[in-house]
Amino acid sequence: MKLYALLTSAGINIAFCAILLSLYSILRKQPSNVSVYFGRRLAQFSPKPHDPFCFERFVPSPGWMVKAWETSEEEILSVGGMDAVVFLRIVVFSIRIFAIAAIICIFLVLPVNYYGQAVHHGHIPSESLDVFTIGNIKEGSKWLWVHCFALYVISCSACVLLYFEYKSITNMRLAHITGSPPNPSHFAVLVRSIPWSPEQSYSDLVKQFFINYHASSYLSHQMVSDSWTVHKLVIFNYNTKLNALIMSKNKEVKKGTRSTRSSEKRSNSGIWTDAYKMLQTSSMKQSSTPSLIRCSICGVSPNSFKILSNDPVKDKVDLDSTTSEEGASAFVFFKTRYAAVVASQVLQSSNPMLWVTDLAPEPHDVYWSNLCIPYKQLWIRRITTLLAAIVFMFLFLLPVTFVQGLTQLEQLQQTFPFLRGILKKSSVPVLSNCLQLNASKSIISDSQWSVFSSVKDLPTELARAVPTQVILSPDILASFFMTYVLTSGWASMSFEVVQVFALLCNYFTRFILKKDPSNETLSFPYHTEIPKALLFGLLGFTCSILAPLILPILLVYFFLAYLVYRNQIINVYISKYESGGKFWPIVHNTTIFSLVLAQIIAIGVFGLKRSPVPSGFTIPLVIGTLLFNEYCRQRFRPIFENHAATVLIEMDRQDERNGRMEQIHHQLHSAYHQPKRTSQDSSKGERSNHSEDGDSIQDPEDLKPGLTRPILRTPS
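Given the sequence above, the corresponding structure tokens read:
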């Protein structure tokens, strides 16, 4: 790839971004787009009236950039929460470190790469990107010391910046914990794997256990009901029996003589009535017999499966009794935060599989159906998930390996001799040539088929393959990642600020459906934006000394991201969830991984360039980076995983002095209230054949011949 081609691509993306940003500055001024570009403000304040004939609304302006730049971190904290501040710290850290890397690599590494070999250089825009990469350095060159020095500067600067960011965010998290309103999850402990007893209920066991062993701190508890599995079994049992009875009655009717339409209606009505009465009779006989046997699936007794009646009042009572089956899990509430933390971290029983405790999740994070899963099944599910992921990985590798093997027919014939007859057909060599042409465009070439030919040589072959491809194809490496940052980075920021999908939905609702769009606001997509920022950071660290031209492109991306994300946090997104910056340790570890990967690649490149001294001097840098990471893990990470006892005790004392502790205790049960639905929730006072959750039982006499059988309603 030539340099002018890269400049052309950059110019096209710059023009595209400028057009979209100008379009955004116009669209955000239109009154019809208030719900798209000011969703957060619209959720808190009423929109101001706009002058429909104002000429300024149709002129692009950079006012939103100025507003986003001038907004302080305290305002971001009050608007978007601590998670928004920590995310912007990731962007600021990336700007700082890659600004340092760009200065070092553009003014030191890039000239060394350009004059690395004694060749005649033409016009710079016509030069290939290969001459700007480390691949242009001849073997045994002493100028590789410059690359080693640049790597030291980048790594040390990154570690210093990471330390101060980690320290600052840690202090910010402590201030967030102490300054935030009382959280019910700080007083609650989730208890699972409660042992079953035929003499006592789960609730009585929990109360007796915690009064006995946590008498001074135990407050109350709330059981988790295993309602969903019970309802499914009730419905299945009812429908199966009713189907069997109806089929038997239909056979009896078919044996009789043909009748008129009216008599057929009475006959069908009689079928439903007889089937329904027989089912009620069998259910009453079953429920009249006591049973000590519990279901192996949901843990309830067989008598819990009942048939709902036609009476709406009785229907509701029966449904409530069905959903009241207790599961082997409970939320236990304590009088203080400190007591809850101690109870969650201490082993409650000599059998680690019983009375398992953990800090309760926040109320809106509880997924109630998962709490009914037996604790002994969790480790089996984890292993099953891991095995499924491994199987999927190998299933993906097999076709890829086969296709790559087609580019090396000779090695494929040596490895699998039974394929020689198939591989000698005329179509296979043609396919192999096409694949070889396409393979030359990849970063890791298909020529490394020998990597998969012998498992014992896998580490050696990979160590030889990756640095070799980095050196043999540096222009491909540089052009691919630069183009990726230009398209996926710059363009994505432009689309993010324009909110194309939300804008189209808004226009479709207004002008096609002729309705007012809903004012539903979005939450910030941390799950996609944090990995994207970390990926671009990985590309910046690994390519900094190999292809320095990527650094200015990355800097433009992070500067644009800084403005766009601040604007979106201020105007568009709301904070539906607040973790208190708990994802920063992941960011720190990912950055350390990127640094170590860049250093290991540099060691391999220096070795292939026959420069053992720079390669040897890079090894202490790897060790120092890992030691720094271990220090940060010991110094800061526990604060993100656990709560400090001194902080919790001081918060408890402050609540007691202010008289808020009793109010907090009173709100605990309502915070962890398990939702239940009865048969009358969706009917709104009317009995109908269908509802949002299913069908209701009706009087068999009211059924018409063409209707299907009645189905027991399923509460969701």
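The mean pLDDT is 77. Try to locate this feature in the token string yourself.
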